Amino acid sequence: MYIEVVKSKIHQVSVTETNLHYVGSITIDEDLMDASQIIENEKVQIVNINNGERLDTYVIKGERGSGKICMNGPASRKAVVGDMIIIISYAMMTLEEAKNFSPTIIFPDSRTNRLI
Question: Is 58 a catalytic residue?
Answer without folding.
Answer: yes
